[in-house]
Amino acid sequence: MENLIIIANLGRVRPLNYKPAGDDPLEEAHLLEEPEDKIELRPQHIHEVVTDHAGRFSQGGPLGVDVGMSYGEERHLKAELEKKALERIAAKIGEIVAEQNYPLWRLVFPQENLPSLLEALPAAAHQVLSDIVTGDLTKIPLVDLERRFITHH
Predict the structure, then answer these.
(1) Given the DSSP bridges, would you call strands 39-40 and 12-19 parallel, antiparallel or unpaired?
(2) Domain 4-149, CATH
């Protein structure tokens, strides 16, 4: 079992630490999450970035009538915002792994952005990554995560 599990998506990072059972037979292994450890890194939305019509390309329509940004430009902007969100998430994950002195760790992240995240991860954090689980589990309650990741004997 890895001592660190990082559950993330494009807008949130949840680091969880594994605590093994102690000497007390009633104490079971569990996951610890400090409330302040949940990090919200919400990706920006296009309407937050584009505030006016300057520089937009017309989608067509009557001459002299501004009808907004072209679909191609919007798609490129979305891709750029997603790339920046992935870079922020990767950097934050790198910080968390470094703060804990590079333990073996498990990543839980949605499949569609996983290759880009892995590419953006700092090399030192990537080297100690021991397991990847695909999916978005950022909103799953801690008790359900414990059931999923800790096997009680």
Answers:
(1) antiparallel
(2) 3.30.420
